[in-house]
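In the design runs reported in the main text, the only information available to the sequence generator was the tokenized backbone. The following block is the verbatim input for one such run; it is reproduced so that readers can re-run the procedure and compare outputs position by position.
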């Protein structure tokens, strides 16, 4: 067996004992020198007394085995199988068979647990009835949990857990209380990463808890003891909370704080003593050399020891490892002996490269230990390092974390060990992502506090700066670890590390991409955030190294993912949705495009086979997903079939069966020359499958003609970059949004604290009771603010720093360039996974909303250009027919709606090419039927807001005195109208008469629906409010009601914009639809006015209720919108046509003069002042866009047309207008408004159902 860094030696080249036939043969050294060396390494124990003289005479390899056995036998200690006072199995674990309540996920080792129901409880398998006992709990989340002790008689449920029943006692660090039926304040608040120690003294009858080794005091005394009473370790935890228990299977973290207490599981004392003795022998070998010339032993620095092939030393080490290797498979010994020994090697400081001894020791491990032994040893060593990193106390210089990371780096520098860990441990259950996280402890101060607020702020800022510098050291070590993982030059012992990492990384993404996964194997999102930043740094460093070696390739600043990765089957996207739908469907419908553009041919027979496989897999998946009866899942938990399958879902099964072939571009398509390309499962791929060779493009198979023929970077980096984008979409963005809440909480508590201090200053000295309560509140607010401020310092340093912002910005630009390249392929754009568009939108949102004001987005390099590129993507693809997914189309529409709410992003939309702007406006003006029109309408409203009548407000006037829930909402931004886009809208509507008619007809239809729904809902709300039983109105109903009102207002504003920009659509009656549109508009305006302006009407009563959720429902927004339409209609009337146009409004059957009088505040002169408290434009100050209206009475007297004198002259359909049209061929009659509206949807006559072939004007003949 060979190992890198040492001499190639085989285990079979020596024996553990020398041949009996050649007792004097010792290799290079003579017998005396060998005996002296062995006596020095294995000194006789003082316990042997005079009998040991025989061993000191001459010690050879023939006698060494027996000598070593005798030395180790002295360490054998008679251990009782069961210590008095403890009952249960010797190995203490969680009782996942009968000792639980609720739904829980238990780790394979039966020591970790995750709550998966409302309030789940579980106890251990061992109980204690006398003596002093302790166990530790590693808190992985800081939510609601109750940790402590319970008896077998305790019965728990989904509402009551440990501490809620008699004879159960618990500590709750989330609410800082202790529980035993009743509850009182106790202890300190815990945080994720803390260690809770639970101590019980059954001799004194007390229970005590410790937090991170510090006693919280006696929690309970005089607990029940005696015959029949025994206490089990137990916990109750809420949904998704998680902990890990240590009953003694590993060394306790803080044993010196409770030395007189025993762990529930006894430590392996005998093995521990043997391991330490053998380690001492090993250290002696490392520090002793044999000078064969001088025939003496020489002491030397063990740090410079190397394997040099000396048979004497190797055979000596073989004897040691013959006993040492089996011990290193036990987690307790690995953590207590081996890990501490390796850490001691690095204690001298300096870089990891200055301590080569660790590399030599690992060579020795692989040489002298069996493969299964070294594999288990390395696995346990890494897991111990992970636990130590996560749960070590935070000191100001992060010394513990740095120490553990340095050892991890040193181990991973060993090539064979690194590859084993990559293949078997890293990214399984997410240890790599956990180790690349920096988790702060809230109780650790980051700054000094002073009396003055200014000094406190400066001290806080200095503390944050120092913290950031310390964290940068940790981050650099974590990046070094990832760079070792991404090394693609270490091919001496097999496949390079990068390709092992890549395949494991894709499996890691697969496990986290599906919501059906076991939560115990999913990576927490807070760790994903740190992982992605370190991975981006490592990728960019390798990318730029490749750029320096190959100047023709692109730099990381211009990085993107080529489009062929999305359709050539080389990269596994699991069951993630594509822009064009299912991959199997795309392969069938776009196979000709694949052949023409990408030179990829798909065998139709294979497509048919894949379709049948899809059907079979759907049946299997449906059966596998049926719920089982198991409630608690422990070591016997079977991994779901979808998780262990080499391929997942329709996409993978298709790629596994489809034949993908490459043909020469210069040859005709008819007789393609097919070259078979292997499409393998992730774990079966090799370097050649990824990087390609000898004409094989690897991951870049099938380059489209539109894609430039330029080297990008190493192909493996492209796939890792693709995974980084996927990882951001899975959970990173969501976690970034959650972290922002801390900043908001800090602000709220700061305001509350300041307000309390002002009240204390104003409190009369005689009211001591009030003063005492205020001081208590002040203390609570100050403690909470202190706690949140420290947490915010950690978050700003690790999540929202300038460097992290640049990482997210780089990811945004990668997505933009990837989308642009994929879009250039035409129909093949449909193969792109949806998450690229999602990440482009979400990363921009994160940069704009989540990062602190000190990290201004405008200062980012190329900010305006990036903004314009993203604007072009949103403008083009929100109505792209190649995108079929409803969710992604809605996301694009919402992103565009948010984009036009802010001046900078709106200017970016105006900077895109005119052709794209016109196409965007044309899509926005498409009819509202058969599509989600609300967001489209909202975009048009935002383009108009600031130009309409009384429409320059940010918030409604009646809400100005209230505090908005979130001032950053797009709807609360200052008006920023776009005159350029308004001009494009006017051009389109004026030039395309058919589009204008269909668009406005759909707007009027939706307005009619929205306002009718609103009126129906407020009727129900009013009826519910008037009932004697005072039933509460459903909040969902209130929300829907407010939404319908807001839609009505926004639709009215779009009509106002249209009338202002293109008045001829309504007023130029040479257009066939102008009269009909104007009559429909008048009808709707009158309906709105009648409903809203009637005194003491339904609308007034509901508005006066001021129900929560209906804050936006008020007279002002809807009436000023109607007024704006009326004003612009009047302003655009030519003098010669004003009578005819005004008559449309005034002759409508729904027109009521009192509505206009109400609007202008001209109510009944005899009404009291109390009765006149209604809305009026005279009492509102909407802004400078206030224009007077002509007095309604004068208008009606001057322009109201003459009324028909006979019912025979009225339209038999509406009875509102004169007959003005006659149908062909049946000669029935009606007004033009009725027949034109009817013919939009139906060609049959109103009366006889004959098909109408034409409509002529009708004029009543003069009477004779």
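Verbatim output:
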């Amino acid at each position: 067996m060979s190992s890198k860094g040492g001499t190639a030696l085989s285990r079979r080249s020596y024996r553990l004992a020398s041949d009996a036939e050649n007792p004097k043969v010792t290799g290079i050294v003579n017998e005396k020198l060998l005996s002296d060396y062995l006596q020095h390494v294995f000194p006789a124990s003082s316990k042997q007394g005079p009998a040991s003289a025989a061993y000191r005479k001459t010690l050879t390899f023939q006698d060494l085995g027996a000598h070593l056995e005798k030395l180790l036998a002295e360490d054998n200690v008679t251990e009782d199988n069961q210590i008095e006072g403890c009952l249960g199995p010797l190995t203490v674990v969680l009782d996942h068979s009968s000792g639980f309540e609720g739904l829980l996920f238990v780790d394979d080792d039966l020591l970790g647990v995750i709550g998966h129901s409302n309030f789940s409880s579980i106890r251990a398998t061992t109980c204690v009835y006398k003596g002093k006992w302790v166990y530790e709990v590693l808190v992985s989340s800081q939510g609601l949990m109750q940790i402590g002790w319970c008896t077998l008689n305790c019965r728990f449920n989904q509402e009551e857990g440990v501490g809620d029943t008699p004879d159960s006692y618990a500590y709750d660090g989330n609410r800082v209380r202790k529980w035993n039926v009743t509850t009182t304040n106790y202890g300190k608040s815990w945080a994720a990463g803390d260690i809770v120690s639970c101590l019980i003294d059954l001799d004194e009858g007390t229970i005590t808890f410790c937090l991170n080794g510090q006693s919280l005091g006696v929690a309970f005394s005089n607990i029940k003891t005696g015959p029949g009473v025994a206490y089990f370790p137990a916990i109750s935890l809420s949904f998704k909370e998680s902990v890990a228990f240590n009953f003694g299977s590993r060394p306790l973290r803080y044993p010196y704080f409770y030395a007189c207490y025993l762990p529930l599981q006894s430590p392996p004392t005998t093995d521990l003593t043997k391991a330490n003795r053998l380690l001492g022998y090993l250290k002696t070998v490392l520090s002793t050399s044999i000078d064969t010339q001088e025939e003496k032993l020489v002491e030397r620095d063990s740090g410079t020891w190397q394997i040099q092939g000396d048979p004497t030393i190797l055979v000596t080490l073989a004897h040691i490892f013959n006993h040492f290797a089996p011990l290193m498979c036990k987690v307790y010994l690995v953590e207590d002996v081996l890990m501490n020994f390796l850490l001691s090697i690095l204690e001298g400081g300096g870089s990891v490269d200055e301590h080569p001894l660790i590399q030599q020791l690992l060579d020795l491990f692989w040489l002298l230990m069996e493969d299964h032994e070294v594999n288990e040893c390395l696995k346990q060593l890494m897991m111990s390092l992970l636990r130590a990193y996560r749960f070590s106390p935070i000191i100001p210089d992060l010394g513990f974390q740095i120490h553990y990371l340095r050892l991890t780096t040193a181990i991973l520098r060993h090539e064979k060990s690194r590859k084993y860990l990559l293949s078997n441990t890293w990214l399984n259950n997410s240890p790599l992502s956990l180790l690349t996280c920096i988790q702060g402890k809230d109780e650790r101060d980051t700054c000094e506090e002073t009396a003055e607020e200014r000094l406190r702020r400066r001290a806080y800022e200095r503390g944050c700066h120092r913290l950031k510098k310390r964290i940068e050291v940790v981050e650099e070590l974590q990046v070094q670890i990832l760079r070792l993982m991404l090394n693609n030059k270490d091919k001496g012992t097999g496949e390079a590390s990068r390709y092992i990492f890549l395949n494991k990384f894709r499996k890691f993404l697969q496990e986290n991409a599906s919501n059906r996964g076991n939560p115990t194997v999913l990576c927490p999102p807070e760790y994903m955030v740190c992982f992605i930043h370190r991975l981006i740094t490592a990728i960019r460093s390798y990318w730029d190294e490749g750029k320096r070696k190959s100047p023709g390739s692109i730099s990381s600043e211009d990085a993107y993912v080529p489009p062929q990765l999305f359709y050539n089957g080389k990269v596994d996207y699991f069951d993630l949705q594509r822009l064009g739908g299912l991959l199997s469907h795309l392969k069938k419908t776009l196979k000709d495009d694949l052949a023409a553009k990408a030179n990829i041919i798909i065998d139709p027979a294979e497509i048919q086979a894949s379709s049948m496989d899809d059907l079979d897999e759907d049946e299997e998946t449906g059966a596998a997903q049926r719920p089982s009866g198991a409630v608690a899942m422990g070591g016997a938990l079977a991994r779901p079939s979808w998780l262990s399958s080499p391929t997942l879902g329709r996409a993978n099964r298709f790629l596994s069966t489809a034949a993908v072939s490459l043909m020469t571009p210069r040859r005709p398509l008819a007789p393609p020359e097919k070259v078979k390309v292997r499409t393998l499962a992730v774990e079966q791929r090799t370097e050649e499958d990824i990087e390609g060779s000898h004409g094989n493009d690897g991951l870049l198979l099938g380059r489209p003609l539109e894609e430039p023929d330029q080297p990008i970077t190493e192909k493996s980096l492209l796939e890792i970059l693709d995974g980084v984008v996927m990882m951001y979409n899975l959970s990173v963005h969501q976690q970034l949004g959650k972290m922002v809440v801390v900043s908001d909480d800090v602000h709220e508590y700061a305001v509350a604290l300041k307000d309390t201090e002002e009240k204390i200053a104003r409190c009369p000295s005689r009211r001591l009771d009030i003063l005492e309560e205020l001081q208590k509140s002040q203390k609570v607010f100050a403690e909470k603010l202190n706690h949140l401020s420290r947490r915010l310092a950690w978050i700003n340093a690790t999540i929202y720093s300038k460097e992290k912002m640049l990482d997210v910005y780089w990811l945004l630009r990668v997505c933009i360039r990837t989308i642009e390249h994929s879009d250039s392929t035409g129909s093949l754009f449909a193969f792109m996974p949806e998450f690229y568009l999602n990440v482009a939108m979400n990363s921009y949102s994160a940069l704009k909303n989540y990062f602190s004001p000190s990290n201004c987005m405008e200062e980012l390099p190329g900010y305006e250009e990036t903004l314009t590129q993203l604007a072009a993507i949103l403008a083009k693809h929100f109505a792209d027919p190649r995108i079929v997914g409803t969710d992604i189309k809605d996301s694009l529409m919402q992103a565009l709606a948010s984009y036009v709410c802010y001046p900078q992003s709106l200017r970016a939309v105006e900077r895109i090419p005119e052709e794209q702007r016109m196409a965007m406006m044309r899509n926005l003006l498409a009819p509202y039927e058969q599509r989600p029109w609300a967001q489209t309408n909202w975009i048009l409203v935002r383009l108009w807001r600031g130009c309409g009548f009384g429409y320059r407000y940010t918030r409604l006037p009646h809400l100005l005195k209230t505090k908005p829930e979130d001032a950053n909402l797009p709807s609360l931004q200052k008006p920023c109208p776009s005159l350029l886009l308004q001009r494009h809208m006017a051009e389109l509507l004026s030039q395309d008469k058919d589009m204008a008619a269909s668009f406005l007809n759909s707007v009027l239809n939706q307005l009619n629906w929205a306002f009718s729904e609103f009126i129906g809902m407020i009727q129900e709300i009013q009826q519910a409010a008037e009932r004697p039983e005072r039933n509460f109105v459903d909040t969902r109903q209130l929300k829907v009601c407010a939404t319908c009102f807001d839609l009505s207002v926004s639709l009215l504003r779009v009509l106002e914009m249209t009338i202002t920009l293109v008045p001829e659509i309504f007023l130029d009656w040479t257009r066939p639809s102008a009269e009909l549109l104007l009559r429909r508009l008048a009808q709707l305006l009158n309906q709105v006015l009648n409903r809203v302006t009637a005194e003491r009407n339904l609308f007034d009563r509901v508005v006066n209720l001021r129900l929560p959720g209906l804050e936006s429902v008020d007279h002002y927004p809807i009436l000023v919108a109607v007024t704006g339409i009326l004003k612009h209609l009047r302003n655009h009337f030519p003098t010669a046509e004003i009578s005819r146009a005004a008559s449309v409004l005034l002759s409508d059957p729904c027109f009521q003069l009192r509505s206009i009088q109400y609007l202008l505040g001209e109510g009944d002169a005899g009404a009291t002042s109390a009765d006149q408290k209604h809305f009026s434009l005279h009492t509102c100050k909407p802004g400078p866009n206030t224009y007077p209206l002509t007095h309604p009475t004068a208008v009606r007297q001057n322009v109201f047309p003459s009324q028909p004198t006979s019912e025979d002259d009225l339209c038999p359909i509406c009875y509102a207008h004169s007959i003005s049209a006659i149908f062909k061929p049946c000669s029935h009659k009606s007004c033009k408004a009725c027949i034109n509206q009817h013919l939009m949807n139906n060609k049959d006559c109103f009366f006889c159902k004959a098909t109408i072939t034409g409509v002529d004007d009708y004029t009543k003949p003069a009477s004779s």
